Amino acid sequence: MDIRKRKLAELAVRVGINVRENENVLVNASIDCAEIARLVVEEAYKAGAKQVIVKYRDELISRLHFLNQSDETLCEIPEYLVLENKYYCDNKFARISIVSPKAGIMDDVDPMKVQRQSIEANKKLSFAQEFVMGNNVPWTIIAAANPIWAKKVFPELEENEAVEKLWDAIYDASRVTMDNDCKADWDVHIKNLEKYFVKLNEYNFKSLLFKNSIGTDLEVGLVKNHLWAGGAEFTLDNHLYAPNIPTEEVFTMPDKYNVNGRVYSTKPLDFQGKLITDFYLDFKDGKVVNYDAKENKESLKALIEFDEGSCYLGEVALISHNTPISMSNILFYNTLFDENASCHLALGRAYPMNIKGGLEMSREELAKNNANLSMTHNDFMFGSADMSVKGVTYEGDIIDIFVNGNFVI
User: Is this prediction's pTM over 0.70?
Assistant: First the structure.
């Protein structure tokens, strides 16, 4: 076994969720990730976890369900799933997700069928998402290669070679090498990201202006008392953890009703197993009022019309063009990696941590502060090498944040 695979598993446990003695841990993993899932379980117990539960999913079987089950059957969300998720929340299970995407796996499935099932599932299980997004427990995401994903990323290579090269790319992006001290390197990386979000918080911008040569011309208002964050976060009981491995972003909360202009995507978006390519969105008073896509416009429509909040923004994130993932010039066809190679926005729910006192606010209080509420949260990438980002202060001053795609503050 490649020593880096074990180091990635240890990184997820020791830095990702930073597991505590006698803590419960839930591992959600694709069936393709069994090998690294076992390593994660082993490392979690080494670190003192009380119990580790693994839940596997199989995207190929999910596809068969969507092709063969009726809408009525698909939309029946059994009560045992509700009780199971309540158990994980009540017992404060830390969460590790191991993703292994299969872009295009749902190409022959009706996107609205997937949409209807997803909406019903979210209605029953949204409490679990809110629990995690409310920083009640530590959570993190890592990735594992599979042949379908590897051939999508490296179509010119033989399957075995493509899988090996994708693993190399995952390790490089995650700052895992054969001989480095991963935790020490991540401590330095997190401190470097902290320098940016501390500076942005000091400016307390009213809005951000984005422009590039492909046509993006967008103003994103920020909620009053917004907070920038990135790299690592704290749970409500002050436990440090790193939500995404890899991560290169600093991010905050847009004002739900104060986003205007047009934004063009710069990377494909994998939504419900379908790749949406070359799309744009027009915003007016925060809401998406017009859109188009070269491929899978119906999936883009499903994303935007998921619920009342899915046509508004819940996150704006800044990532320099000169970060390692971007400079690798690898298109991963997966948001975990591609969002960390490019500035991105998210349609859907905002993170309560991105506003002062937000973690203590009720849904009604968050809404009064123009935080977006939704059952979904979907990032899409719009950064570019020539991206200009300016911050507008409450005094009317305009400050350069990005010049030619990179931080200058």
Answer: yes
